[in-house]
Amino acid sequence: MTIKLWKGNEAIAEAAVRAGADAYFGYPITPQTELLEYLSSRMPALGRVFLQAESEIGAIHMVYGAASAGKRAFTTSSSPGISLMQEGLSYIAASEVPCVLVDIMRGGPGLGNIQPSQADYFQMTRSAGHGDYHPLVLAPATVQEAVDLMSISFDLAFLYRHLVVLLADGILGQMMEPVEMPPLRTLEDQMPGWALTGAVGRPPRNITSLYLGAEQLEGLNLRLQAKLAQIAAYEQRWESYRTDDAEQLIVAFGTVGRIARSAVDQAREQGQRVGLFRPISLWPFPAQPLAQLSRHVDSILVVEMNAGQMREDVERIVGGPVHFLGRMGGMIPTPEEIVEALPMKPKAQVHRNGSNGAAPVKRIKERSYAPSA
Amino acid sequence: MQTSIVIAGFGGQGVLFAGQLLAHAALDARKHVTWIPSYGPEMRGGTAHCTVIISDRPVGSPLARHPEIVLAMNQPSAVKYAPLIGLGGLLVVNTSLAEIPATRPDVRLIPVAANEVAEAAGDLRLANVVLLGALLATRPILPAPVVEKALERYLPERHRHLLDANRAAFRAGYASQDEQTRLAA
Amino acid sequence: MPPVLERPIENQTNNGSPVLEPVYCFPDSLRDVHTHYCPGCTHGTIHRLVAEVIDELGIRERTLMVAPVGCAVFAYEYFNLDSCEAAHGRAPAMATGLKRVLPDQIVFTYQGDGDLASIGTNEIIHAAARGEKITVIFVNNAVYGMTGGQMAPTSLPGQVTSSSPAGRNPAIQGHPIHIPEMLAGMPGVAYAVRRSVHSVAEIRKTKKAIRQAFQTQLDGLGLSIVEILSSCPTNWRMDPAGALDFIRDQMVPVFPLGDFKVIG
Fold this sequence. Notes:
The structure holds 3 protein chains of 3 kinds.
Chain A: E1 3-7, H1 8-18, E2 23-26, H2 33-45, E3 49-52, H3 56-68, E4 73-77, H4 79-95, E5 99-105, H5 121-125, E6 136-138, H6 143-160, E7 163-169, H7 170-174, E8 176-180, E9 206-207, H8 214-234, E10 238-241, E11 248-251, H9 254-269, E12 274-279, E13 281-283, H10 287-294, E14 299-304, H11 309-318, E15 323-326, H12 335-341, H13 362-366
Parallel strand pairs in A: 2-3, 2-4, 4-5, 5-7, 6-7, 11-12, 11-14, 14-15
Antiparallel strand pairs in A: 1-8, 6-13, 10-12
Helix pairs in contact in A: 1-2, 1-6, 3-4, 9-12
Chain B: E1 2-10, H1 15-28, E2 32-37, E3 47-55, E4 69-72, H2 75-81, E5 90-94, E6 108-112, H3 114-121, H4 127-138, H5 144-154, H6 163-184
Parallel strand pairs in B: 1-4, 4-5, 5-6
Antiparallel strand pairs in B: 1-3, 2-3
Chain C: E1 10-12, E2 18-20, H1 43-57, E3 63-67, H2 75-78, E4 82-85, H3 91-101, E5 106-112, H4 113-119, H5 121-129, E6 135-140, E7 143-144, E8 150-151, H6 170-173, H7 179-184, E9 189-196, H8 200-218, E10 223-229, H9 233-236, H10 240-254, E11 258-262
Parallel strand pairs in C: 3-4, 3-5, 5-6, 6-10, 9-10
Antiparallel strand pairs in C: 1-2, 7-8, 9-11
Helix pairs in contact in C: 1-8, 4-5
């Protein structure tokens, strides 16, 4: 295996190719355009489909069409473009066709700017289109992790016949990092039992999201919810870093997750016992592991490049308010800033008598996560 | 051990490539490394900078508020980054296009007339590589031969014909500081 | 797959008595189900024509339909074809996705005027610009039928609808859109015509045009589109016969029948 420097966007594109993507439809938007450009030569060279659509709306509905034929179809965009795709995402989720979407987030709302942001957390985990569903949302922190997650995205999308979102930001899209690429997968021509191929010697198949009868539509929703429950049970991903003896816990995802890692190291050098919990799947959120960790720490600090969207999930899970540091509009929190935001300041003596890092149970009730007034 | 380097200048001065070269060399030297550019709507002629972090451990933040090393290829970059350099840091300035900024006592200043050195080495456009050479002679964050090897391996196809000139520029930059180091000793 | 015959063929049996061969068959490409279309609506006629053409070309098992949002939203329940249901106006994009990954299959969209000429103009124009090798059956009845007869992009000047109670005033609500005329100027379009189903003669001409549109796709020439003027007695507040007269007397003068582009 060779390790090479890859730019995030290009690495994600190559990983999709190697994961067996049959068709890509996309539209240029900064900071993800390199994905489109890379695939414009790479896909045709392999005899696969690349098409620059007339809009993000066109792109997602082309994906919908190609996915309906049982193909590994995907698209990529950035925040404002994702807003335009919401219609198609909802149809895809309701029709239960597999689809992979990459969102390289930028600052909003509105046209915002092209700087990195994490402000699509709600959009992707809560409202990726109308109706009752969540996409499976994966948030890498390094280019390597983006490649690894992209490599399994199609498998997950086909396993659950669901929408899988790779949620990254402009930093990850634009930065270069060493990457070990998986080999190019050769896939046997898939012909899922639901795919539109032409009704040869069988009754016709139909892919739709229309269920006019209330009972029918409730039936679809119950089926979707059962599927989501299954995804929630099996697809939680997270990373804990230096949490074993942590008194303070930082919770951060994606790019901020890696910046917080630096903050943990800095704080540790100052004698603070700090750990990091980094959710990798944002939906399903790894609630159980976070809840468990929260019982052993004295404070929780959520850091995001938004106004506190994931914080709402964290507070729900730990059952109370937490500390929060948020930067917006393309401002990126630095490790120093995160260390400064830690609620407990370095002490000369950090050892507790007989402590093994686990907090006594009774302290849970006494402790408050609330920022001090 | 972790080193953060910012390379800054006008778009078109090869700022991003110089950073990528350093990043490739760092990977070849089996270091952890990140490279991240400034990206904006400007296509040509604006300002550009990139940050390279070279480390023995996995890199957390790919950005540095107070980089240890700054390569300033023009006046605006020197003015902007000189005050941001971390404690005990290093500022390599292209004096062909920038005045020597007032520096802090803790920052080591390396003035290089990079345009002139590059021109003498064969091509004015290679001032970026000259500055890299000067940096590595001053602070060997990577072995110079590894960087030179990286030039051979990663110079884009369209600039292949400039490989010898690049190598010459890198060596000239290196020699400029190496000599001074010896004189000072 | 029995062919659909237009006139009876008489044969002789061995003993000399005549046997009649079938003169009417239900098309294989239609399902034998009742539709939800209103009495007098010509969607049923158009479905039938499309199904007959698919049968006659022998392409039923490799034809994929993209249904629209509008009155024909349930077209997939009536056609005996692999099919899917696009979002409003997006059928040409969905058809593009299907055709690009299954280039040997025959892909067609069935769209109404609100779907194609209003919310979906971007999709149809760019599918046409790319010369997507798909066929578009564009049914124009000058109103939004399914939502209850609101003004459509193809409503006639002066036409009273539930959202233009004073009649469509071009100075305020704009002019009707002429889709095949617009698309005919694009190099990616190989076949762009307008037909009507207000009389038997026009129905026959419409079938021929549909057949040529599918043949255009089979020949790989580019996008083919047949606009078909269709009746909506319910929302026009007319009886079925009056609605057909309305097409002839009111719609055809605004939307002239004819060939705007024919290649091949």
